[in-house]
Amino acid sequence: MKIALGSDHGGFELKNEIIEYLKENGYEIKDFGPFSSESCDYPDYALKVAESVKNKEYDFGILVCGTGIGISLAANKVPGIRAALCSDTFSAHATRQHNNANILAMGQRVVGVGLALDIVKTFLEAEFEGGRHQTRIDKLTAIEEKYSK
Ligand code: RB5
To answer: Best mutation site among 38, 41, 45, 71 for ligand 1, i.e. most ligand atoms within 8 A of its Cβ?
Structure first.
């Protein structure tokens, strides 16, 4: 499984912890940056990861900023992206099962490393259930199409 990662300065350290975890567990990863903890803008990195997932170069994306809010908002501007901000494993599991989320977002200032890695594991191992949930995702796509004209 191929995973794209990005953050801003507020999520830089947690991103690095997640990268180590993913490498140790046999995932193929691409780090879209940043590569230092210098101040930067989360939309720049959200866009790189979201486009790589939308273009199917990577199976899933993982984004981290201070709260996870800004970087998830930015990723969700890219059509076809369903970025879910998760601070607990129940939501991480449910968002794969029900929303077919393709990006996991987290806040470095919100969750500790141990919980964050459990959230990552849960998200990547859960599976989309389809059925009535696909109908609802199709309605999300219809909203995107309505406002893309
Ligand atoms: C950066 O200070 C912070 O605003 C950012 O990481 C994030 O929390 C925004 O939503």
So the answer is: 71
